[in-house]
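KIB1-4 beta-propeller domain-containing protein
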Amino acid sequence: MAMACTTERRSSSTTPTPNKWTDELPADLLELIVKKLAWNFVDIIRFKAVCSSWNRAARSYTSAPYHTQLPPQYPWLKLFTQRDKQQYPWPSHDHHSWCFFSLADNNVYKMDWDTSQGFGFHDRAVSFLGSSHGWLVVRENKPPRGSSIHKVVLSSDPSRNNNFVVVHGRGGDNAAAWTDLGGYPWYGNSDIVFHNNGHLFALWIDHSIKVWDFGDTCNDNIPTKIMNFQPSMDLNVIGGGSMTKDERWFVDSMGHLLLVGRESSENDSRSGAVEFYIYKLNIAAKTWEKVECLPDCALFLGRNQPAMSLSTQELPRLKENSIYEWKLQKDCDYNFDIHVEVYNLETKLVKPYYTTRVPKSASCSPPVWIVPSAFGPIREKIVLSTWLR
């Protein structure tokens, strides 16, 4: 079962204050203003909070069928829960709000949810399983607990298409995973991604590929397995040297399917050595082709969440040919610091981007990357809650 929850800044969740001159502005002028602000999701929320007519104008613009290509948004990082506003400078938290770090302006925003919508749990009762199509995926931690669910992907944006499929992988440390849709057992699965209009590509730990067609599942049909092959690969570049940890992601990047690997030492720390390797899947030739650089592209990686690929031409504040990731570092008092770092694929150097302290009282759910979506005819739909037990 899945449900959506509105998450807005506190000011926009209250009734807009009547204001004569703002209510008298013509609708076409308001639409032009919204269009100028559409590149920043936060500005849209602020615009809606001015008055009821501005709120209607923004909702009309973002939900109109002809506005299918709103400007791409900069990613946010969902941070840990913060409860001690005296010791730490970022916005305080309660059980009804989360903080997000925005790469659009390098600011932290507190987003509140409405518990009257039935979304009444707090951070300590949930796990965050990544994001997909602008929706944050949340699992409520309620017993009895079966196999642990690690990752969730959506076939399309539920705000724009009612016919969508939710697929989740589960298993110990992502070493074994499967989908409940169709009853196919998936053993040794590494990552999953939707690609090419409803085709689910599954990457196995041996770099083999299996593909299911989910295109007709909206009519209660079982997904059809259409491909199963082992692409050839030069394995000499993987697992070499002193690196002992190997994490992998499968990502759709500008129409290509990429295998992204991260190698590090077992005691990976902020100053520890890290290496990345990237391969592109050539489906026709059934090969993995080595990728040396990613022009006009930035990748975003996180633990137990789908990787994201964003265009640096559309989002010029991002560094091209780079990989953004977050790390956790624990001090002697058992506090954690979140470090956002940028790895340059050409120079193979890591540069710090953003750091914040997480107190011991904070939620233990790891950070999550999300690209917010302004689509939605009724309300902002940031949170997708999969009530999985």
